[in-house]
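Components:
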Amino acid sequence: MTASSSQVKPLDARLSGDEVTEVGKNGRQMSDEGRAHRRRSIGRTALLVALFAALAALVLIPFWAIFVATFQDGNMIVRYGLNLGIDFATASFDNWVALFTDSGSYFRWFFNSTVVTLLQVVLTLAISSFVAYGFAMYEFRFKSALFVSVILLMSVPFEMLMLPLYIQINDMQLQDTYTAVILPFLAHAVTIMFFRQYLRGIPKEIVEAGRLDGVSEIGIFFRLILPLTKPAFAAMAILNGMGSWNNFLWPLLALRSPDKYTLPIGLNTLLTPYGNNYELLIVGSFFSMIPIFILFMLFQRFFIEGMTAGAVKG
Amino acid sequence: MKLKKFATAALAAGMATLALTACNTATPDAETTAEGSMITQEAVEGATELELWTFVELHAQFYTEMAEIWNEENPDKKVQIAVNVLPYDDMHNKLQIALTSGQGAPDISDIEAGKFPQFTQGTPALMDLTEAAAPYRDDIVEARLDLFSKDDALYGLDFHVGATVAFYNTELLEAAGIDYTTIKTWDDYQEAGAEYFEKTGKYLGTVDTSAAWQEGLLLAQLGGEYFTEDGKVNVNSPEMIEALTILKGLQDANAAAVPPGGQPDTEEAFGAYNNGDFAAAVMPFWFTSRYLAYMPDFAEKIAIAPPPTVENPVNISVGGGGTGTAVMKDGENAELAAEFIAWAKLGTEGNISTWELLGFDPLNTEVWADQEITHNPENKFVKYFQNNPFEPLLEIQDSIGHLESFTNGSMPSVNNLLNTQTLNDIFENDVPIEDALNQAQSDLQNELGE
Amino acid sequence: MRRMLYSPKVAPYIFVLPFVLTLAIFWVSPLIKSFIMSTQDIIPGSVTNVGLANFERLIGDRLFYVALGNSMKYMIFTLFLLIPIPLLLAVLINSKLGSDRIKAVFKSVMFIPALTSVVVAGIVFRLIFSESPTALMNQIVGAFGIEPVKWLKNSETGFMALLTVASWRWTGVNILYFLAGLQAIPNDYYEAADLDGANAWQKFWHVTVPQIKPTLVFVVTISVYGGLAMFLESFMLWGGNNSPQNIGLTIVGYLYRQGIEKNDLGYASAVGVVLLIIVLAINIPQLIATGTFKKEER
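Structure:
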């Protein structure tokens, strides 16, 4: 398709690197050039596809490496490293069997992570979009100051707040609860920024029309604006979901009971010379990636659409 | 204002939902064996529950077994132990934070010797166990109590002496025509190693970059310390230079090399040992358990001997590593916890169990002399090793030293710097020993604000 | 009361309230505490005010400079790797070349690593970069006849491993950010450039780059922050915070070491304060220069 389209409209081959050739000097030359152009274009396309294929393969190597490792003895993997080969002589499904029959708290951690991620995504999106609407649609005192603080918030290393925050969580009697894990991130600066950009793209006329119809300000947000922001929600759901599913340092501090651990913390506990759990570590690490992949595959269309729509515009 | 209220209410409702879910999912899990899990003893009626943290799964088994014996002997003060097995770093960090913030600490916790001084800084949150330990004190290797003492208060009770010994793979050595029993000094060790390398192209021993077991041993043999008498950092002392010169000599003579993982007690190193890349290890006695767990193929091929020494050593061996079990003084049942722990860690039953279950050299030296226990042919450690593990122990019994340095509050910093920077400089990057140690000295002085 | 619901004057405050609350409770208050703690010596059972002593200690602390240097180096290298390359790939994806289907698959594949947890990524790369001759990286260099390398023990190769993890995880994400920016550029701009006889490079430089400036600013801002605050990647790659010769020690790693591993909260807070100042010192001028703040005053 591309080759023919660039033949038909060579002028519009905007970023393909095609130079605008001097055309029209004489007809025969032009048709020759057309053919040459077409050949060149096919060559370039092939080059591009090859580049993409090579990069994709490179990116997928670690996944393959850990996948084949799930069929090997975990201790051997830790001792001798990961590679791409599979030794059929020693390969077995033992690790997979163990994962589903004798994996201790693994599925509990899995469940915990799912709960935390769902809660965090739903609440963060609700609150951040709500806040972003305030920034996007209104003029009010302190707006600049507050908005600057959103931007600055993106620059404050959370790690530096971790220790005082831990003490504070204890004072609030929230230690070892998911509330403590989730609460500090509810008004998420990057998410607010993103929604604000997205909402600024929505015509203010909709808001005005709502006001004329006698809808309250809050009502306008919930009834008129939210339905228009679905793609943004999809994109942010995936980004926040990733963040929450993979969050490590803060839950590690905030949670204390092993039966409340989330998956990354749980997996990390397997990485110890005192427990002999390397089989579970490898197969568990691999398996932990699957749900988020599935979600991504299901929603990737919305995700990419949402990211595009919320592009940080000038 | 209504709306503001609405918003706050909504937020509050959200939080409440969260809290509820948190509660729902917090129902304790059934008994599991995976790391990061609670191992709770079977419910005991009328028992006091004690929460215990450890970083070694096997320790958990030890405590629950001891609790069962305790409950039989003390029906009036039964205990129920809930052991929480956490990874090494996490456990210490969490305990530290819990004690600092005054919230969420367990009743009892294992604390690794290298981390212990941190917990006795300022006003320790740990209970003084002097009184609880008094009934058992006579037969205990005193140095191991000193390790966890500060200002005349005893804050932790160890599992073992951890006497540093040498482990030799006799099969490999015999094949190269080397008799390990002739190795007495570091010079012998180096010579044997050089010969072994010449014949096999492989190494006898290790020089470590991520642990300082051999440095500690050499300091004890040379009568050195990591600190001056008034507790200031002194890692570039003549003894330290000599110790590292000896070790560097091993490396230069191809008698030893840096193992994968940086020290023998790592999974990567177990791999190398299993490959036959190294034929010996100079490690604390508890390394016995690693042989059983990770090198089963070497059964009946490993011999244990006293460690190589310098000429006229101050001490032949030194206690290496260790785990101080401490009781939190603010715990509701601190008294009972202390009584139980003292009995479990210092009493005869506990010491026998320490050997039989964990393969450690117990604190109570009476056990060492009890042939019925030490030569029990059914014991898995007796079966595994070529000679009786207690032979070398009895041989060096009166010459197992202790470094005062281990109790210094700055020891964790020294360990950290040696094991990340200095030993790597020396053994991986060929930085001259004195330069590396001077650098370490000034880094530590800066870091500690001395 | 009811009027407020309908008042465009009051409504915005209601909308931003949750943000103000979270900001105050979970960010500003610990931030202030952090500043206070940085002037204290905190040991269990006693807190003493020491003024700027922690900062003085910091100035003489060589390891702090090691950490600072590593973080800076990491940030700069990630900026070089994770801005131009993803931008170029995004431009290629956005071009007319190649089938859309192939490009969609490519986009997804590039993004997949971002979905993995750093914990898992760290474990996988640690084992790929294992010093054993049978580990992948050593097999690769072995194919060229090079002896097995102790990847994670040398500062250059260790740093390379760290950058590999970073590139692996973030290239796909930045591609999507840039792609979003690119697709928002109206076609007319390019057509106009074509009419002026601009070549591809000129179009890229004079149309694409200025048009995606806001995206660039955003990506640079989060990359600066992400680079300077990097910790977990190193923590997982070396299986802990103590890499050989501290080759993986970062500012946050040092904060973690002092605050959590050594329980010196005052000193750790001082490290945190310095980190905050550095991040702001880089980001604020950058944001002012690119006019990000001004926009709001409009």
